[in-house]
Structures are given as structure tokens and as C-alpha cells.
Design a protein that fits this description.
Blueprint (H helix, E strand, L loop, with lengths): L26 H23 L8 H13 L14 H14 L5 H27 L2 H14 L11 H18 L3 H15 L3 H17 L2 H5 L1 H18 L7 H22 L9 H24 L4 H14 L13 H17 L8 H18 L4 H8 L22 H13 L10 H5 L3 H17 L2 H6 L5 H4 L1 H18 L2 H10 L1 E2 L9 E2 L2 H17 L2 E5 L4 H5 L19 H13 L3 E6 L3 H4 L9 H8 L1 E7 L2 E6 L2 H8 L1
Parallel strand pairs: 3-4
Antiparallel strand pairs: 1-2, 4-6, 5-6
Helix pairs in contact: 1-4, 1-5, 1-22, 1-23, 2-3, 4-5, 4-6, 4-19, 5-19, 5-22, 6-7, 6-17, 7-8, 7-12, 8-17, 10-11, 11-14, 11-17, 15-19, 26-28
């Protein structure tokens, strides 16, 4: 009796009647259903976005920077910011093409478009990878809820990042290793690098590791691969080397390191692969180089100096590496990472026998998928610590009838490597970056759940237990699944009735360009209104510390200089402070707004910040009013100065 051939990454096949029923929907049902899910997502995203306003006002900072760039002020040399230039060029193009003003309402709507656009693109990629529209809807649901944190900071570069990452996965799902796909991936890498340097770098490293695993040179020289694997696995520890004494940093480094090692190992050792050569490397390199050079020339042509670009986008962000102020606390993540590494080693050791242990593997995938897709769908921090090290499960025991079979695991390999390396985004500031860092993992969880469904459905015993499902009753299964998903999305995940009630019950801000914004805190609304009305009538320009740049937009004012619109409010450098003092002295009616909590460190005792602007506030200004927790300072009149001298 012949022994059946055991092929890594395959599973036993069975007759169609022994499989679980595959939900299949006709177009006349699918199209209205998809529109219903999109409509729910739009209402949910709108109510989330316009029912909150972050006190630190990153939104206002980004909007004022975009306005300054639109008015012709060079980035970095005139407009102070830490993000790459591509995002501002991209945003400026959107506003110029559409003619939309830079307001809170427009910025919020653009945020919603990027948010749901990224969710939709990832859903299409998932549908193509599984050949299931219903699966795509399920991915859309998860991605929509998962990305809700981006609404905290409308106008942030994170909006472009999530859309670009989703487009990269869609390209791989559509074209796999085709030349035009690799060319576009190189271009996306350049755009990400010129948006956020760390995101672009992680994207590029993941792309290079995927290409290396599919290159004949590396396949023939295993020692070279192991060297690359050691370098990749140690990178998180090198990046966080200054804070490894902190348990949170160690846990974080272990989680990402295990993920990088395991996904790279399973990518390298996956089944029959079509080899890549110098041509593919050349396509990626040329597209990345050309796109980067064009972007650099465009920035320099707009008046930005090369030193200012490097200093603002690389040197300054590199100095912001203290996670102790905002720790990413993931208790016992080291043990979870160790368990994932141990299980990956076991899986690799029994690779030739995967088909014999397909049920345990399917059950492990099912547990992983259920936890990621349902239990932790709204918990990106926990996902980052406990689920990221297990991404390799999507590369083990892939069913034959699933997209990404052994002869072409490239889409899944790219997905897992991109998702793993992007996990480093949340260092050192785990804010909105956490949900962006785990965004691509949403598709990985779903693929594992789908694989488990396919594998378990192929077992004869399952088919026997489903014998009661006649062809007529099987037709009802897709409708039942779709109805259950819609209920889950509306009631459980989005909590749409409650969320809409929360938005409509808030107090309308009702300031220039912010008609849609409603806040639950009536005191904050009154404070913002009072401040906006005061500065609109009482000055021609002002400085606020800490930053409240939205006031410039609400009161239709211009900042005295564009150096004080990003950062901590009072620049630490002498040059920007000197320029701010000169601009205030040239203005007819300038004001300085100091929050009460900042008064001791600026106006009383030994100031926490030194420089000409601080001296100007202390020596040449008088307090003229107190409005909503702010002390309003104005320059002394000449007579006031004479009185002070006597």
C-alpha cells in the first residue's frame, strides 16, 4: 500500500458534502448588506469623531501647520513640526483640489474617510485572500472598531499611514510577486518614510526580509539567513536599549522580537516557492529611490533646507525616547512571548507531520482567531503584548483551498512581516500608535479563524454531524450569518444607539469651522467659547501655553511665528523665542495666554524654561484679564514702563 505524500502546509481533502457549508451570497443580497454595514460605520465614525476633543490639541497643531504650508511658509525652516513632509504635501493637495478650508469639520470628515477607507481596503484584501465576500465584511467590521482611536487626533499622519498599509496588503493580495506590485510597494515605502521615518523604516525592513526569504541567494546560504534573523530579532532590544531596565520596555521588546523571529522563520521555510531574482530587487530599489528623490526635491524646492529637514524629522524624534512618561504596560508579556516561541519551535520541528496533527493546529488557530476577532477586538494594547508573538500561526498548515497555499504563501508572509514590524510603532509613545501598530493584525486573526473553519470542516466526522443540512436549509446559512454579524456590529461592537445618543446629547461647540463638534463637558465648551471670543476681539495675534492652536482657527487669527505652533508652547531654543518676541512687538495688539497651571513655572520664582520670550513675559507684560483658567498678558504701554522704572 502506497504511503501518501506529506506536503508541508497542506491538509487532508474530503468530498464537498463533508465540508462545513460555505456562506455564499448572491449579489442582490450582498450589495445592500455591504451598504448597510458601511452606513452603520459612517454613523459610528461620525459620532465618535465629533464627540471628543483632546485637551492637548494635537488636532489644532496639525491644522495650523497645514494652513501655514498652504500659505507658502517652508516646512521645518518656518513651520515647526516633527513629521515628514509627504503628509503635508498630501493634505495640501486634498485641500487645493477640493477647495475645502482647513477647519475642524473638514478635518474630521477627512479623518473619517481615511479611517473607513483603510478598513474597506483591508476588507477587500481579506476577501481576495479567501475568495469570500462575507469574510471581507467580517474584516471590515473589526477594522472599523479597531481604528476608532484615530478619531482622538483628526488630522494626524496616522490617517495616511493606515491607508497606505492597507493598500500595500491589497496590492500583494491582488498581484502577489508581480513586478508592478513590487514597484508600487517600493513607492509606498518611500511615501511612508517621508511621512513618519520609523513607520517607513519598519515597512522597508519587512519588505526586504520577505524578498530575502524568496531569493535564491538566501535559500542557498542558510548561514546568511540565520545572521539576518539574529539581527532582526535583536533590533527591538537595540531600539529600546536605553530603557530595558523598565519591565514595560522589556515586555514590549520580547513581544516584537518573538514575532519577527517566528514570522521570518516560517516565511523562509514555507513550501514550494517561486524564486525572486535581481530584477525584482532592482524594481523595488529603483521605485523607492526615485520616489524618495522626487519627494526630497519637491520639499527643497519649496524652501526647506536639508539640515532643517533632517533635524526635525530624524534628530528631534530620536531624542524623544523616554517611555516612562507613557508606559505601555503589558503584564507578563515575556511569558506569553516565550510560550509563542516554544510553540513555534515545536511547530517547526514537526513540520513534516503537520497533516497528521491538523486538528490540534486548527483548534489552536481557532482559539487565536476567536480571541483576536471577538474577545480583544477593542483592546489593541493587549493585542500588541499577547497576540503579536503568535502571528506565525497564519503561516502554518494553510488549507489547500485557501488563498496562500504552499506554492504561493507570499501574500500571507508579507502580511505577517508587515504586521510584526509595524508593532514597533508604539515605541516610545503608545497613544494612537497602538491601534495603528496592530491594525494589520486584524486580518491575521481573521485568516486563522477562517483556516480553522476550513480545516475542521474537511473532517469526515464533521460532515456526518452536518448531514441534517439539506441543500434547501443550507441556503439559509449565509443569511443567518449575515444577520448575526450585523447585530454584532450594530449592538455589541459599535453600540450605535448609545453612541449616537452620546453625541447628540453633547453641547454644540458652535465656533467657527466647528459646527459638528459636540462635547459632553459643558464647562469645557463654555471655556473654549469664552477664550475664542476674547482673542477674536482683543488681539491681532497671540501665543498660548500650553498649546491651544485651535484658537487660531476658531478666532480666525494667525500665529506670530510658525515656530510656536508645535511642541510645548514655549520653544526651548533661543532663536524661535527671539523671533516670537520680535513678532509680538511688531503686532498692534498681541496677547499671551498662560494656563493657571503653567504660571508657577513661567511667571513665578525660577522659570522652568529660559530665554528671551520668557523674560519678555515676566518683564515687559502685564496681566490684563483672567479667562477660563488662563491668565491673559499684554505688553506694557510706554507709560506703564515709565511707571515701572520709578
Amino acid at each position: 500500500m502506497a504511503t501518501p505524500e506529506i506536503t508541508a502546509g497542506t491538509s487532508d481533502c474530503c468530498a464537498p458534502e463533508q465540508r462545513l457549508p460555505k456562506p455564499a451570497l448572491p449579489l442582490w443580497v450582498l450589495a445592500p448588506a455591504a451598504l448597510a454595514f458601511v452606513a452603520v460605520a459612517v454613523v459610528y465614525a461620525f459620532s465618535i469623531t465629533f464627540s471628543q476633543f483632546a485637551p492637548y490639541d494635537d488636532q489644532g497643531s496639525m491644522m495650523v501647520c497645514i494652513r501655514g504650508y498652504l500659505e507658502g511658509h517652508p516646512l521645518y525652516d518656518s513651520v515647526r513640526l516633527m513629521y515628514g513632509p509627504f503628509y503635508f504635501m498630501y493634505e495640501a493637495l486634498l485641500h487645493r483640489v477640493t477647495g475645502a478650508p482647513v477647519t475642524h469639520d473638514v478635518t474630521g470628515i477627512i479623518c473619517i474617510i481615511h479611517w473607513l477607507g483603510a478598513a474597506s481596503v483591508l476588507a477587500v484584501a481579506g476577501g481576495l485572500m479567501t475568495r469570500s465576500a462575507l469574510f471581507g465584511i467580517f474584516v471590515f467590521m473589526q477594522a472599523t472598531v479597531h481604528l476608532r482611536h484615530v478619531a482622538r487626533e483628526p488630522g494626524s499622519p496616522q490617517e495616511f499611514v493606515i491607508l497606505a498599509l492597507a493598500l500595500a496588503i491589497l496590492l500583494v493580495a491582488v498581484g502577489s510577486q508581480r513586478g508592478w506590485v513590487l514597484t508600487l510597494l517600493g513607492t509606498i515605502g518611500a511615501a511612508l518614510l517621508f511621512t513618519k521615518v520609523n513607520v517607513g523604516a519598519f515597512f522597508g525592513v519587512a519588505l526586504l526580509m520577505a524578498l530575502s526569504s524568496y531569493t535564491s541567494l538566501l535559500q542557498a546560504r542558510r548561514s546568511l539567513f540565520w545572521g539576518i534573523l539574529v539581527l532582526g530579532g535583536s533590533f527591538p532590544f537595540v531600539l529600546m536599549r536605553g530603557h530595558l531596565e523598565e519591565a514595560s520596555a522589556r515586555d514590549y521588546a520580547v513581544a516584537v522580537s518573538v514575532c519577527v523571529i517566528t514570522t521570518s522563520l516560517f516565511t523562509y521555510t514555507s513550501g514550494d516557492k517561486s524564486r525572486l531574482g535581481l530584477r525584482e530587487w532592482f524594481q523595488v530599489g529603483v521605485s523607492f529611490g526615485v520616489a524618495s528623490m522626487l519627494l526630497l526635491l519637491m520639499v527643497l524646492a519649496n524652501g526647506t533646507s536639508l539640515w532643517a529637514l533632517v533635524h526635525s524629522t530624524i534628530i528631534v524624534p530620536a531624542g524623544m525616547t523616554d517611555p516612562r512618561n507613557h508606559p505601555l504596560t503589558i503584564p507578563s508579556a515575556v511569558w506569553g512571548g516565550a510560550a509563542a516561541l516554544l510553540m513555534a519551535a515545536v511547530g517547526m520541528g514537526i513540520r513534516a507531520y503537520w497533516s497528521r496533527v491538523s486538528v490540534p493546529i486548527a483548534l489552536l488557530k481557532a482559539a487565536y482567531g476567536l480571541i483576536g476577532c471577538f474577545l480583544l477586538v477593542t483592546e489593541p494594547r493587549i493585542q500588541l503584548g499577547y497576540l503579536l508573538p503568535w502571528l506565525w500561526l497564519a503561516l502554518i498548515q494553510v488549507p489547500r483551498n485557501s488563498c496562500g497555499r504552499p506554492r504561493d504563501l507570499f501574500p500571507r508572509a508579507m502580511l505577517c512581516l508587515f504586521a510584526g514590524w509595524q508593532g514597533l510603532q508604539a515605541y516610545p509613545m503608545p497613544g494612537t500608535q497602538v491601534c495603528v501598530a496592530t491594525f494589520l493584525s486584524v486580518l491575521v486573526y481573521s485568516l486563522c479563524l477562517r483556516d480553522a473553519w476550513e480545516e475542521l470542516g474537511a473532517k469526515p466526522r464533521v460532515g456526518q454531524h452536518l448531514g441534517f443540512l439539506t441543500p434547501r436549509t443550507t441556503v439559509l446559512v449565509p443569511g443567518l450569518v449575515l444577520s448575526s454579524l450585523l447585530y454584532l456590529f450594530v449592538v455589541q461592537w459599535c453600540m450605535l444607539p448609545w453612541q449616537w445618543l452620546y453625541y447628540t446629547s453633547g453641547q454644540r461647540l458652535d465656533l467657527r469651522g466647528a459646527r459638528y463638534l459636540r462635547l459632553a463637558d459643558a464647562n469645557r465648551v463654555e471655556a473654549y467659547r469664552s477664550l475664542a471670543q476674547y482673542v477674536e476681539k482683543g488681539c491681532d495675534t497671540f501665543i498660548a501655553t500650553p498649546l491651544l492652536n485651535s484658537l487660531y482657527l476658531w478666532a480666525d487669527k494667525r500665529p506670530p511665528t510658525w515656530f510656536n505652533v508645535n511642541g510645548g508652547g514655549i520653544p526651548s531654543e533661543v532663536g524661535p523665542q527671539t523671533q516670537a518676541v520680535s513678532a509680538l512687538e511688531r503686532a498692534k495688539h498681541p496677547l499671551i495666554l498662560v494656563r493657571e497651571s503653567e504660571v508657577p513655572g513661567l511667571l513665578g520664582g525660577e522659570p522652568s524654561v529660559q530665554g528671551p520670550l520668557v523674560r519678555y513675559m515676566r518683564e515687559d507684560c502685564l496681566e490684563v484679564e483672567r479667562v477660563s483658567g488662563f491668565r491673559i498678558l499684554a505688553p506694557k504701554r510706554p507709560a506703564d514702563r515709565l511707571i515701572g522704572l520709578h
